[in-house]
Design goal:
Elements lengths: L1 H21 L5 H10 L5 H7 L1 H23 L5 H4 L1 H20 L1
Length: about 100
């Protein structure tokens, strides 16, 4: 049960950061910098304005960091690293879905 609560909190945190950068006033300087330095067709601009795209990279960092720490602390356990290919995209999709429902 505690793992489910942790995953829900992780999804909400990733959604919050993705929405803050791509939609809210806090992320306006980042979006303005991306628009000034790059064209609107560039990947950097799309990353700064697309919450689906940004949620993937945020979730990858948010999921990899605890998994790497857990693997390094418990060297005999391989399961934290084994969950990465499944957990990171799931968290990214759920976070993108949450942002999509709150913005639209």
């Amino acid at each position: 049960m505690i793992i489910l609560v942790a995953i829900v909190i992780l999804v909400l945190c990733v959604a919050f950061f993705a929405k803050a950068v791509t939609y809210d006033l806090v992320g306006l300087p980042i979006r303005a910098w991306a628009e000034e330095k790059f064209t609107k067709a560039s990947k950097v601009y799309k990353l700064a304005t697309c919450w689906w795209c940004l949620a993937f990279w945020i979730s990858l960092v948010a999921v990899c960091t605890p998994a790497l720490v857990a693997t390094s602390l418990y060297l005999n356990n391989w399961w934290p690293m084994a969950t990465l290919p499944f957990l990171a995209p799931a968290v990214a999709y759920a976070a993108g879905w949450v942002v999509d429902r709150t913005v639209a």
